[in-house]
Amino acid sequence: MFDFDMLGLAPTLNTALKEAGFTQPTPIQNQAIPLAMEGHDILGLAQTGTGKTLAFGLPLIDQLLANPGKPAPKTAKALILAPTRELVNQIAESLMALTKGTKIRVTTVVGGRSIGKQIQVMSRGTDILVAAPGRLMDLMDRGAIDLSQTRNLVLDEADQMLDLGFIHALRKIAPKLGTPRQTMLFSATMPKQMEELSRAYLKDPRRVQVSPPGKAADKITQSVHFLAKGDKPSKLREILRQDPDALTLVFSRTKHGAERLMKGLVADGFNAASIHGNKSQGQRDRAIKAFRAGEITILVATDVAARGIDIPGVAYVVNFDLPEVADNYVHRIGRTARAGREGEAIAFCAPEESDLLRQIQKLMKIEIPVASGESTLGDMTEGTAGRSNGQRRRGGRPSGNSNGGAPAKRRRPRRRRAA
């Protein structure tokens, strides 16, 4: 199939897709949508940035359009669970754009917002409820939400829900849903616990996988700088100055580290903001909105945002600190090269982080090209995986450089609409 018109979606949806600029489905959408529209449970495995939201959102909306009717008070016809507030908001925004002009109501339930207002909104019922498990449990305990009429369940970024300990909430939520129901589970990785989860909640699912777990998007150029921990701030500033107008997402391992790094950048004249667990939901929303609009060009974040930012314009991802969990590296760099665009991922590796880098390369089955410094990975040598022959190493010196490691000018990835 080559375009959305051929998937059998409602004409209203096809019109909304065209108005939103979507013309051709991604591989995960092309495979998952027809199966979901036939009523099958779906187990979808795909890296970040491949269009999973529309893969479950389009068949869900299509089904609601085919079965209109006002939801009863406190009920939701469909429930989408996501692990973070940012991801809940991103999903809801995408679905609202496609349901504009219809009677389908999309509602969000997340922490950090007035629970009283959420109770009031849910008193009218909703068609699609996008929720974070923790706040959903709070509202269920207060009798503000009735899931007995919910016939569609989507678990998005299910592996991260497991990592964050939401499996216990899921075990309490699932039995409250109506039956029979259709369940779709989407994940970037497939750990053993995920297989157990799919067996528990999916009935004869159709498995859709468009790329091996642990594989980054093909259009991401990766590089690593080996340097001392104390040299990271100056190297970051050097890289940021090479393309000051590009949107750059910088990852720090801790909340305090992210805030300290952001304040240091602002003090040096950089246009930066931060999002992490110590920020209120309002502060995080405002920072992401400003970043998306280009009002700020540098966003410093912890992993709380690794799967919650869907901003096609992100040109660079800098891993200021390497993540302690290798999978998170894939999710972090998946914030760039979205929707068919190109992007660049730059990692800093201090000597004490060598084992973390080794685990990342083992997971991804590649050797990340060295941009500067001496590798601290022992017998592993500077590799060529992840770039084509003759490709320059961005954010560092070009391949085969003999000029003493002078940094090459940072080039902005080309912006292209997905084919």
Helical fraction: 25-40%
* Largest sheet entry: 7 strands, parallel
> How many helices does DSSP assign?
14
Any idea what the CATH architecture of the largest domain is?
A: 3-Layer(aba) Sandwich
How does the helix and strand content classify structurally?
Answer: alpha/beta
Question: CATH homologous superfamily of the largest domain?
Answer: P-loop containing nucleotide triphosphate hydrolases
> For the largest beta sheet, what order do the strands appear in spatially?
3-4-2-5-6-1-7
Q: Judging from the principal axes of the Cα atoms, what is the shape? A: globular
- Rg of Cα set: 22 Å
Please give the alpha-carbon distance between the first and last residues: 13 Å
CATH topology of the largest domain: Rossmann fold
Strand segment count? 14
How many domains would you count in the coordinates?
Answer: 2
